[in-house]
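Internal tracking record. Fields below are filled automatically when a chain is submitted to the structure queue. Please do not edit lines marked as system-generated. If the sequence contains nonstandard residues, flag them in the REMARKS field before resubmitting.
Queue: standard
Priority: normal
Entity type: single polypeptide chain
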Amino acid sequence: MSSAPAELPQWGPTGTSLAQTAYEAIKEKLILLRIGPGEPISETELADELGVGRTPIREALKRLEGDHLVVSYPRRGTFAAGVDIAELAAVTELRRALEPVAASAAAERANAQQRDDLRAAIERIRSFVAEVPEDSAGDGGAAEAFLRLDTLVHHTIYQACGNAHIADILARYHYLAMRIWALAAHRLPGIIEHAEDHIPLLEAIVDGQADKAATMTVEHIDEFERSLRAMF
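SYSTEM-GENERATED OUTPUT FOLLOWS
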């Protein structure tokens, strides 16, 4: 599984501040459900684990609350946000509205470096497919690697669309979608096919085929929802 991305891609302000480092680390735990839905979050434990003070942890948790990944209650503390399959329809509705716009815009606007990044994402997928066993259902490692790969692919598209506002909204909602997906990813059959489905979409964007990219994006999102609902 060495071809899978080592970590979820960063989104939003980048940098090397302790608060940013804490934000990225905690966000990954929440998205991959290493911190389970509804689980209390200890600032002290996170500070010790990440080797930072409590102030960067508090700043990170405040940002994550804005991302709808944690919830805070007065005198009770901070908890990982719940994951509810009932939210899938709302998440899908937003993604169906904005992701085709992002894919089409990326096909038209991506610069040379961004198209290289999209080509690199295609190679990541091919490497993943070559390494994952055909019958990977029940393989938690393969499921987590797929979630990382899916996030890499979609965020590479968002970064290439040329509209920071659309990209920011989609990144947040994709994280919510991945938390729902993470509930059942280890039981998902055909994980290789799901990964390979991204390749024609990425190729359309690289080749500047805006209308085709938009159409394929809608099909991809609809298939994502069908696959998830079949698991619950």
